[in-house]
Queue: 2 jobs
Job 1
Amino acid sequence: MDDKQILSLLQSLTLEEKAALCSGADNWTTKPNWDKDIPVLRMADGPHGVRLEDKPNEKITGHHSLPSTCFPPECALACSFSPALAARVGSAIASECRHYDIGMILGPGVNIKRSPLGGRNFEYYSEDPLLAGEMAAGFIKGVQSRGVATSLKHFAVNNQETKRMSIDAVVDDRALFDIYLKPFEIAVKKAQPATVMCSYNRIGGTYASENRRLLTDVLRLRFGFTGAVISDWGAVNHRPSGVNAGLDLEMPSSGGANDYAIVQAVKNGDLSEDALNTACWNLLKLIFTYAETDPISPIPQCDFDAHHALAVEALEKSAVLLKNNGMLPLPKEESIAIIGEMAVHPRYQGGGSSIINPKNLVGFVEAMQNAGMPFTYAPGHTGEHTTPHLLEQAVKTAAAAKNVVLFLGLPDSFECEGFDRDHLAIPAAQIELLNSVAAVNPNVCVVLCCGAPVETPWLDNANALLCLYLGGEGLGEAALNLLFGNANPSGKLPESWPLTLQHTPSYHNFPSGPNEVSYNESIFVGYRYYNTAKVPVRFAFGHGLSYTSYAYSRLTLRNNSLASEEPLTLTFTLTNTGTLAGDEIAQVYLRRKNSARFQPLHELKAFTRQTLAPGQSQNITLQIPYQSLGYFNPATKTHVVEQGEYEIQVGPSSHNLPLTMAFTAAGTTLAPGTSFAAGGFYSKLKDNSFPADEFDKLYSGPRTSNSKLPQKGEYTLTTTADQLTGSFWGRRMLYLIRRVSCAYIRFSTNPKANHRAGIAMANDLPFKNIMQQTNGIVNPKALQHLLAMCNGKPGFWRLVAAMLKRPPYARKRYLPQTKKENPYANQSRRKKNS
């Protein structure tokens, strides 16, 4: 349908039909309007596979969703530093979407890994905005090339799970634009995702779902976004304000309550119909571009076997060899003991809404059996625990073998959507197992499965350390190929691994709360902090070893003095100096010298992945856009490139940059004297204290009182459930919400993880979300009476009356009765494929 036809259709819609279009029909579909030939757009969770719910058959199949390929999640895929690989994975996922009649996949996620404690870090790419944005752009291009929409999420500053639905993220504008919004900007400008999903949290006191500065001024006017903005599930606060700010689609359904609120706001003059028309225009463009409009066409088939092979290849190119004392690759003729429960039941994806029912999961032990390779095995641990018997068995098995491959990692109960991690340690039982095994056999290779960095005080007891992150369904086969040299490790870390949690830049301000979290470290996230403050780390950003070796040489610049808008073009030579073929990821960093504003030591500005045969040399030319030399200037609210001296640095990691060269660039001369000027606290970093009074010099926006918890009589619709305990009815509400949440949450096959996530999400649920969670059954008036009761006021019988009385949105028909046969009736491909 072209723009003229969409405009004609929009003009034919009634006010009620327009309002109805702006919210979901249920959890996973938009509302159709069969009289106006508006079809359904079906969605599925992502982003590392297709999670299409199949609740009717859960008891039969044992799975909550239909099977699909589980690719390595973003935490692993980012280690490839390959947007091209991300595009191939995206294309395969889109093929499976079409197979299951899905028009939009909810991903990718590009939120910055501010702290390694972030409970959802496994769903995101990096601590660096360039890497995150480039990987996301590749994924989006791959998905949308197959006619499936993407949803770039979570916009914005959603960097923790604690109080994620209500927390106010307080971040200065320079960090906001240069760190937290930058990956969204890159992905939008390079790939134009069909939708952007707003986050739950507040930014500067305003919910993301009604933050016009973010959704319109920045996203559309500054970044050039042309698609539709949708809410995260339950992220809406005040629906008319959201429409006015630029939020087009509320997901999921509110049972009609918010549709009614939109209609009333337009009639009362609180919301212009033009704003509603804009939202509908964006949604109609989305629906008619990506929804299935020919329901009786043949079901598109996809090659699950080829996709599984791609999942294996993706992990082979992403796994990071963190340490190797010459133990790897393993000689195939030497005896091997495999120890660790995760070798049989691998930790291959994170817990949460992204959990995939894998089509063909292969663990390491199964892969060894399929390859016909001899080995002995002992479980050693059960994830979090071990026993004297398990330890004794593991020690005997290790002592009888030449080499030991020990699988360690984080169970779902340690990292999962819904809660943040408490520490960076792996389970104590696993450390005890490693120490016991290493005492009888020093030839121990640890294979680590985790969604984020862990502390490694046990590293001396490992001769080799191969990090798979979370490797997807092909984990076993990829691990076999990497350990025995059939594939050469080539991944690099997309985040810094600290020595201890106490060294992390956000240590004193994460997750903070209960009302706000202050980003006192400003732009000094990850390696920008460690390298600038000279804080030692266990493994640096960009670190990764190989079975071969590489040399960097002959760096040259096309022009050592750049004019305004002239890109920086650099050339260097990369040589494989080893005896094996391999892939090397070369990284290019920029240092701003003598800047008038505080700066990190350096920033990643380009990277490239090159395949080289033994002895082969390759001349590599890269180009850095002129604007990439600059940064956001809060004083003028613009991007600025300073006139002055710069240094380009090239090498295999942020700690190893053998090639450097200075150059100058034309630009703006900034006056000294602002809070961001060089010479202040942030220019002389020594530790991660980041005092509040120094941050207050950078941030002048609104603040939320962070110390005072609401008391009975002060509860509002944004008060979270665990803050209601000052009243009898509040405690009853919290108990009931926890019971329902724990019964509903299925984020993992680990019951402990589900329970922990259920409790955490219940505690953090804002009062206003009760209406959405009940699909409008608890209507707005009933919600107000319930809130009054929690505040100690009488209201029980008013609550009963409100619940019994049908609200206006239940009496009003927002979509006309079907006058002609629904073309989708009895044509559900979803049923056929289940």
Job 2
Amino acid sequence: MIVAFRWLLRLFTGLVVLGVLGLVIGYQFLSRSLPDYSEDFVLPGISAPVEIVRNNANVPHIFGNSDEDVFFALGFAHAQDRLWQMTQLRRTAQGRLSEIFGQRTVRIDEILRRYDLYGLAVQSLGAQDAPTRRALEAYSDGVNAWIGQVISGARGRGAPEFFLFEPEIAVWQPADSIAILKLMALQQSTHLTAEVRRARASLLLPDARLRDLLPDDPGAGIAALPDYAGLVPGVLPGAGPVRLADTPLSPFAQAGMGGASNAWAAAPDRSAAGGTLLANDPHTDFTAPGLWYLARLQLTSGGVIGATVPGVPAVLLGRSDAVGWGLTSSYLDDLDVHVEQLNPENPEQYRTPDGWAEFETRQSILNVRDALPVTLTLRWTRNGPVLPGSHFGLAAITPPGHVASVSWTALSATDTTMTAAIRMMKAQSVADGLAAGELFIAPSQNLMLADRDGIAMQVIGAMPRRDPRNQSRGRMPTRGWLPENRWNGFFPYADNPRFVNPATGILGNTNNKTVDRPFPAHVSFDWGDTQRIARWLRLMQTREVHTRDSFIEAQLDTVSNAARTLLPLVGADLWFTAGASPAGTPERRRAQALDMLAEWNGEMSEHLPEPLIYSAWLRALQDRLIRDEIGPFADEFTHVDPVFIERVYRNTEGAGVWCDILQSSPVESCTDLARLALDDALQGLVERYGPNLESWRWGDAHQAHQDHPVLGQVPVLRHLVNIRQSTSGDDDTLMRGRTGGKDPDPFTSVQGASYRGVYDFADPDSSVFVISTGQSGHPLSRHYDDLGELWRRGEYTPMSLDPDLARAAAVGITRLTPQ
């Protein structure tokens, strides 16, 4: 027995030693791709020495003798820290994910090939001005210089992920950067899914109830739309759900999950220090690493600092000594779906206003890892590319003998958005920034500007000129062969909404409706916010003058205007009406929950139970209201729409009829449904978090999931690469934490302010910024998630252009010397 024990002990010890040895060897291999920020390089492609000074937050401050040398160094720094992310963004835009990920990304690649974003990026290269082309070429040379160092210096293949997937890295091309900008347009676009959803709902509901379920901004008054069956005859309700590729690698935004953001600015007379103020926090999907990469570039026009996207040679959000700029999603309606009729005699032709025309057709071979290649037949109409019915739920709204095509501003072969971004960095005034915005094509944004003297907001991006007779006014798919449904070019830039130095001295946007103009100059019917704007207005109006800290306070505000509005309506007949009931019964839980909510101020704090009760109640209530009317289609309404709930409980235009369950004999009241929904919600929460309501925490349910798109689902590894943080806020707070909406964890925070910046032109070097993860994309780097902890606590890092401050406590200084 003793001998057996000794041998077992020796075997266990040997296995432990082998395991430790394996970990050491693995770490040695993986850590070789960690860059040494103090290493110097002799490289071709630069004209003079360049310094990359990485401050204590690992933000590179780049100093060179020419703009081209600075862009070269930015490419070098991006590749050092985010090479895998850059190559994946490029591969996504090219429609080549399946070459390394296999069958699970075939559907993604198919759509990207049909859109041909990369081909359009290649064509758009010739539309850029000379300085932009030089910047793109220099940046590409810098990226390729680091790839060369990886190959020649055995630097762990450049990133740990390359040990698991295809290690070969194609050289970086100038068109790659333009393609990434087009990919960002795709990631923010939700108009296609919105049109399909509205069309499907129209097949199930009368017009009055459609206006309830998919309401317009309450401030807008528009005439009734025709129903979809009248627009495109031959479509029947009841088709299956919309199914997009359900993988973190998908660039397609689900309905309600497109771009979002906040930005506001104050003129000097509304600033306590007498200088303009600007705050900006764009909301993107949470990933690790995040989308943004902080950098400072010392250009010949002056220093600029802010947020870049790896793969793009531009500070897209940030400031110089002269100008600050931020972006919010404008929600401009820049996409239309067309139903194209096929020729019954020849399916290779489609109907146009002039008769039958041949599709523009070509073949594309999609290589798939561990599977046979897939041959795609890509077809374009005069309206745009043809998309298969299997994507975006298009089959549900396309009658037999027809296909769907898409007109979209991002499908431009002369896209000058990159030139606009380069010119924006060199702007010396608000006027210069407004002029740069004219070249911006897609994705459409609200450009918020501030210089030392004034502020402005401008909608940038191409605005389609629709025919006033357009049958759906761009809100639902229409017959593509009718002239009135086709685009007639674009409005001139002067017609895009612009606001300069308003009398109130304050400008702001939370993706809310910005103008109330008649169609077709309306900008949009579908806006991204109806709730955050109300809270922002209150915060701005409570102070005569603002400071950097008051702008930070607004960015971090977690009070829900929706909760303050809806709870008094939904619970109007429930407050303080409960009688005595035994402990542990649903009646006692309901009474306790109502007492807690009655004393709650609407703050969506991660430490409180009330936000969790409120969110679960409203979610259960909306499901009860709509499911009997629209059946399984209700599964696609994953987020509570406060305007819909308010319409029902105020009985706006008869919307109270939603409270009556059609399948039952009694006539239910809205109070009945509110009570039932609260019981549903509390029962589910008890099963998940236990019977003690006071011990529940919103932060346990509302964790920010910043997951690695590739390794985040791999057992064991996911614990090393995913970043999980308890957070406050929700869908409708200024500090937005957009919930996932999917069971079993519907309140997981999946989208939010991945970048925050506040710029103070009374003291520019007191400006601050932060990102939600860290600068490095390497999971073994201490800079993989170091800024994420500041972000979670609502803290920032200095955003100074002072070279001495950057050098103080720098984590490293890299010197590039020309060969």
